[in-house]
Amino acid sequence: MKNKKRIASWGTRLAINVFTLILTLLFFWFLGFVIRDLQTLPEPDYVEVTEAYYIDSYSRGSTMSAISFFDPELRAKSNEIRDQIADIRQSISQREQQQKILREGSDDIEKTLDRLNASIIESDERAKELAATAWQQLLERREQIITLGNEIFEANTEREKLEAQKTDIDSQLRIHVQAADEHYRKLYRQHRLRVACYQIAVLLPFLLVSLFLLIRCCRSPYFPIYLALGLAAFFRIGYVMFEYFPSEYFKYMLIGSLIVAILSLLIYTIRSVAQPTFDRILKQNRESYERFLCTNCEFPIQIGSRTFLYWMRYTIFKVWSKKETVEEEVCQCPYCGTSLYEHCSACGKVRHAQLEFCRHCGDKKEIETSET
User: Fold this and answer.
1) Tens-digit pLDDT profile for residues 170-186
2) Residue 354: pLDDT band with limits 50, 70, 90
3) Is 295 exposed, middle or buried (0-12, 13-18, 19+ CB in 10 A)?
4) pLDDT tens sequence across 271-312
């Protein structure tokens, strides 16, 4: 008689689960190395992009000639005006310093004139000559101060004109800079999207192959290997999408993927209940017998000393001790009529009606299911 598939010990199952987890991490790591090489694709160069492309400027409804994002003439003119403003400011600072020196000298001359005027009152001829000379020097200094003041005023006026002109040029350059930045960001987004598509194109075959193997070879002993590869590819694709795709797109992709995954699990669960496989039916029957429940409706199997007891799947061991034994007898479920215990056709002893083999002689019988 051919034996059924053996169930591994808990230690072996634990080792398989641990190794599957480790293999998943290793696959995830390996796929990360694969897609990281795609990140070495050169990004668009900002200077090259902004110098190579052109835009059309519109002014008062008329189209001007096409200029680059950073017009060399405008930049040169802006730099020239900036240098002129710097020279004018330096010149103004020098003239203000000269004015300060002249004012200080004028104050000294005025003090000298005050002392000489006192001497002139005493009819000092030498004092009169010195006073005339000092007065002449004072007048010259005042004229120089006035001249410097006029020059400073003219310089400030010129500086203000240049600053206004530079402001206008800078505003034009700022428009070009904004257009250049927007164009560069557009190219950069396209570059990131291209890299993401390349990475997903590399990862997608791993995911599809693993899904194919998981579906076609679900009963294979190498199922954990396929599962590890599928999980690694799935999470790596999710990581790439989270990193490269915009958040407004990623959230829809994430929700869509979760909906598909949950729907798949729900459909699989519903099918396992509506159209269970033969092995699943045997497993459910075995679990029901372990808890003395009907294999079809889970009504308690009330025979022997359990006749007047009632329990459910998770309360059986609260109302019935494992040490107590009950002699099995032929019975059917009083609720749905399912045969639970019957006489073995080979040895004549009472056997489980919904399990394949007799526990006394090992005789095999066909189990009636909805598929048969």
Assistant:
1) 787 777 777 777 878 88
2) confident
3) buried
4) 777 777 777 888 888 888 888 888 888 888 888 777 777 777
Helix (H) / strand (E) element for 351: namely: strand 350-352
| Residues ≥6 apart with Cβ < 8 Å to 105 | 141
Backbone angles phi, psi at 332, to 5 degrees: -125, 160
For residue 270, the tally of other CB atoms under 10 A from its CB is 10
Instruction: Assess contact for 34 and 168: CB atoms under 8 A.
Output: no
Arithmetic mean of pLDDT, 325-352: 84
Average pLDDT over residues 233-262: 79
**Does this model's pTM top 0.70?**
no
Q: Spell out where 27-140 has E strands.
A: 54-55, 58-59, 62-63, 67-68
Residue 203 CA to residue 198 CA, distance in Å, equals 9
Q: For the chain, first and last CA: distance in Å?
A: 22
Q: What share of the chain is helix, strand, coil (3-state, %, to 5)?
A: 65, 5, 25
Q: Please state the length of the chain.
A: 372
Give the span between the Cα atoms of 335 and 170, in whole angstroms: 91
Which residue in 73, 57, 76 sits closest to 65, CA to CA? 57
Name the helix (H) or strand (E) containing 339.
strand 339-343
User: Which residue's entry shows tokens 């899904």?
Assistant: 211
